[in-house]
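Technical annex B. To support the medicinal chemistry partners, we prepared a structural model of the target in complex with protoporphyrin IX containing FE, based solely on the information shown next.
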Amino acid sequence: MKSDYPDEKNPSNRYTAPARLLHWTLAILLIGMVGLGWYMMSIEDAPGSDWYFNLHKSVGLLVLLLVLLRAVWRLLHQPAPLPLATPPWQIIASTVSHWVLYALMLALPLIGAIGAAFSKSGLIFFGTPLPRLVAPDHDVAELFFSMHSFAAWILVILVSLHVLAALKHLLIDRDGVFQRMWF
Ligand code: HEM
C-alpha cells in the first residue's frame, strides 16, 4: 500500500523511543511543576511551605537538565517528515510552535533558578544548599520571579494549543500524526 508519508522505508514515521520517552516525561513533570508553583504561591507564608518551595527548586533543576538533554537530542536528530497531505501553513505553525516551546522550556527553569540564586534562601537541591555564585538581592530576585510567573502563563497557553492540535490530528484528521509520538 502507498504510504501517506514521504519516507517509504519508515511508513508510520514514528519518533524514536528516546524522543518519545523524553517528550512524555517532560510533559508530566512540566504540568506537575506548574501545579506545584501555583499551589506554593497560595500557601507562600504558611508554616511548612518551605518544603514545597524546596521540592519545586529541586525538581525544577532536574527538569532543566532533562530539557537540555532533549534539546541536544533534537538538534542531532531530525524528526521524520509530516504526511504528504499536510497543508504548508500547518507545517510552518508546527515548526514555529515547537521551537518556541523548546525556548520556553529552557527559559522558564533557567529564569526560576536565577531568581532563586538571588533570593535570601538561595538554590537548594533535595536538601543540599548549592554554593552561592551571587550575593542575595531582593529586587533582582523579584524581577526574575515576575518573569518566571509570566513565562509559566505563556507555557500554559502554548501547551494548551499544542494539546488541542494533537487532539485534532487524533480525532478529526485521523492522519496518524498523534500516533507518531504515542507508545
Ligand atoms: C521546570 C519548570 C518550572 C515550571 C513549570 C515552574 C513553574 C512555576 C510557577 C507556575 C510558579 C508560580 C508563579 C506565580 O504564580 O507567581 C513558580 C514559582 C517559583 N518557582 Fe518555578 N517553575 C519551574 C522551575 C523552577 C526552577 C528550576 C526554580 C529554581 C531552582 C524555580 C523556582 C521558583 C520559585 C522560588 C518560585 C516562587 C517565586 C516567588 O516567590 O514569587 N522554578 N514556578
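Notes passed to the chemistry partners:
Residues 30, 33-34, 37-38, 41, 53, 56-57, 60-61, 63-64, 108-109, 112-113, 115-116, 123, 145, 148-149, 152 surround protoporphyrin IX containing FE (CB under 6 Å).
The radius of gyration is 19 Å.
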